[in-house]
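ok so dumb question maybe but i'm new to this and my supervisor (M.) told me to 'just get the structure for Exporter of polyketide antibiotics' and walked off. so i did the thing. is this what she meant?? sequence i used:
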Amino acid sequence: MTGTGTLLRFMLRRDRMRILWWTLGIAALYAGAAGEYLSLDDPAARSARAVLVSSPAMISMSGPGYGLDDYTPGAAVANELILWVVLAAAVMSILQVVRHTRAEEENGSAELVRAGTVGRHAASVAALLLVVVMNAAVALASGAVLAAQGLDAGQAFAMTSAIALGALVFGAVALVAAQAHEHGRGAVGLSLAVLGAAFLLRALGDVQERHGSALSWLSPIAWVQQTRVFVDLRWWPLGLCAAAGVLLLAVAARLAARRDVGAGLLAVRPGRRDARATLTGPLPLAWLQQRASLGWTTLGLGAMWLASGTIIRQVPTMLDAIQGNPLYDALLGTGEDMVRTFLGIFGLYIAVGAAAFGVAATLRARSEEEAGRTEVALAAPVSRYRWLAAPLTLALVGAVVVQLTGALALWAGAASTGYDALDVGEYLRLGAAYLPALGVLVGFTAALHAWLPRGTGLAWALLGYVFVVGMFADLFGLPGWARRISPFWWVGNPALGDVEAARLGGLAGVAAVLFLLAFAGFRRRDVPRV
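this is what came out, is it supposed to look like this??
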């Protein structure tokens, strides 16, 4: 492990902004959610919330539910927030570990580093220590946010620390996957598949038996929830997280000693001797590269929206109890169509997920250029327009597929419970209304790649801003100009029929202009420009 400290310092310097943004983002999630639960000062509203949380649908979407007899704000934070923060922190840990291990081997950087006085396991240990630092920063900032809002400080830091330990288990999973798979995308996909399996095991186990069954205990997510913070704190389930992390680290070290640098342990399937006749341009190549991510994204988000749809039937009961609550009045309004307003929020969630895929798929062009493959491809008889059009086409088509599939999954979940107040056509219109706004986000990302390649992170910043405006504009009292920055604001609430064709046409026009700017900028600038 010679050189571990030096590599860790380099990784911390390289990722200092990532650490900052992840910490601020998750802390903001805590702040918004805690404020919502603290506003439930009416016993009837808390009881209604507890009834909703105790339903099978919500148990599968949040957790086993503790302290429902006396549903305090702390119990609400723990029951309804732990699962989602564990998922966010786990994704953060997976991406960071693969970024500094398998991805470095894939682009050749690891071999150059290993040419110096650096031990075989230094990079892996440094990457895992980096994830420890990131999760510790998130835990400290988030615990401080919860304590500042009036929750018990000891319980708050216990909860955020437990989440950090749970996320580290999946960071160790990513370290094992990085030894097994030859490509960074494959290692990320394998790790996310394990995370999805953990989510599924926990959901099935919690639904089978109150407070979780034996099946639940196969999931690290359940170990975090079983600490029962804010209700009956117990530390021993976190010992399972520590033991699993140490075991996975040992497995990763053993596997790393049995393979060559740059190689994976899983056998790579040999390709065809000759390329297919259809693989004759940038678009088929882009499809070959991104079809797996599109499939898994559609499947994963679709499963989540399917489960979300199962709670729609129970929404009226919950909303009847919380009417008059200032926070919910700001979020949902006070009219007779509060259920449709609630569906509009689901529509926003679906659109944000689709937009995230669109932005990530567009930035694939940036990754190809940084890796040097764009310059090689353009040396062949391939125009810049064709080359850029390929990832943009996949990004647009993929975002549409994710969006409409999500809307259909939401309808299927609601229909499975017998809720038929809305037909499938209304759900499709709910999804379709956001398509021009999705085009704006993809076009903005493409324009950044063409004109300001080093500023492509602004696309993710805009996506986060879009979500904040969509959810909390009324609650935070944002002025009109701040709302109009968000493309989604112009869509309105499709579930209420609050959609104007002129606005959608304007969004489509803005998207078209951004795409034209992207092609013009990419045509004029140097390649590569990093």
